[in-house]
Amino acid sequence: MGFRDLKLLEVKNITVTFETDEGIVKAVDDVSFHINRNEIVGLVGESGCGKSVTALSILRLIPLPYGRIETGEILFYGKNLLELNRKEMRKIRGRAISMIFQELGSALSPLHTIGRQMVETILMHKNITRKDAWNIAETWLEKVQISDPRERMFAYPYQLSGGMQQRVMIAMALMLGPDIIIADEPTTALDVTIQAQVFELVREMRRSHTSILLITHDMGVIWEMCDRVLVMYASRVVEEGNRDDIFSKPTHPYTIALLESIPKLSADKGRLKAIPGQVPSALNYPSGCHFFDRCPDAFDRCRDEKPKLIDLGNGHKAACFLTKNEL
What we know:
The protein has 327 residues and is α/β, with parallel strands linked by helices. 31% of the residues lie in helices and 24% in strands.
């Protein structure tokens, strides 16, 4: 077993529910995956598929009391994070596992300056002077291409553009050198040039043996950045495998549809192929395969029975009755 084959994080059979006025919503349903050392794993799917809730469950940030992790284990270095107390989890968040949030308001306090928030985060995890922490924070603002980093340290979040706030969050996630970075749509608010610079920073962290869970709806980003891919649809993982297998031998109809919707540089100027319909409400999933109502290849068995992930070899798995192992 090589260095990169060592499992750093294992998510086992996680189910997350939310209590709402309309009933119990199952946002994540029996999801399992792992992240190896020095690996970038992509989690891809449309909005509403459960990607962000999966990420929040790893750091136990599911909002209480309405949200609950009903079942499963989340093993980090073999230790189940779901069994740790609040103090133990605070030591892990930010230092060992950090997260770049999709929502800007989830990470930055409007009441404190950027510098204070970054410095306090560093001092919480490192036994260094405030001056040294300030210098580290300022250096990271420069790394994420924020102009006048010294001046920005004294700014409040509302004084920065959305793109600048996003870069501050990225700096805060990277500056402590965590073992795992969970990046939830990390470059949504950034222009193409800054996106490229941020992804280069991520690659640098990976070269320092940091692992990344990259959450996105952009298959182009998946191709550019990831080693392995998890395709998620309506609360469940429907396909997983290494990047080349997912792109060259997609098996699940949803994965195929995602790939067919990518713009192509060709002489064909026809319309993009869209996936018909929309992700079903978590209150009203089909009783069988959750993709049943949108799948062009669905048949009677798909309506009534939930397909399980079937091993197709080389770590490639798909949850579809049309796989060669299921027919």
